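Researcher: Let's do a round of design. I'm pasting the structure tokens now; please hold your answer until I've finished.
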């Protein structure tokens, strides 16, 4: 039941770069147990980059109207993430670390 709820919060309308889906599902699964403050995660545009190798890296960049914008780097690409949440930047970064991502 919890996994279905987590997947309903992950809006998959685009492709997701390699390794990122597992991190996002772990993030939502962990946050459902701790706090229901993450309303949704929406993956955005994917662009190729040279320095995106190894483990999934996430950088929470700027606040947006209803949460945060983040950049995920993995598998030779970067992807924008729009996270609808009431969490602050530090709490969101800690949640990403707990989900297995390297936070920059």
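Researcher: That's everything. Go ahead.
Model: Designed sequence:
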């Amino acid at each position: 039941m919890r996994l279905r709820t987590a997947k309903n919060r992950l809006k998959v309308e685009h492709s997701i770069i390699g390794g990122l889906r597992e991190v996002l599902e772990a993030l939502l699964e962990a946050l459902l147990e701790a706090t229901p403050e993450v309303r949704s995660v929406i993956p955005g545009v994917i662009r190729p980059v040279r320095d995106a190798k190894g483990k999934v890296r996430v950088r929470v960049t700027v606040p947006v109207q209803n949460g945060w914008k983040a950049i995920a780097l993995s598998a030779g690409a970067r992807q924008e993430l729009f996270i609808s949440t009431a969490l602050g930047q530090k709490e969101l970064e800690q949640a990403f670390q707990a989900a297995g991502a390297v936070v920059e």
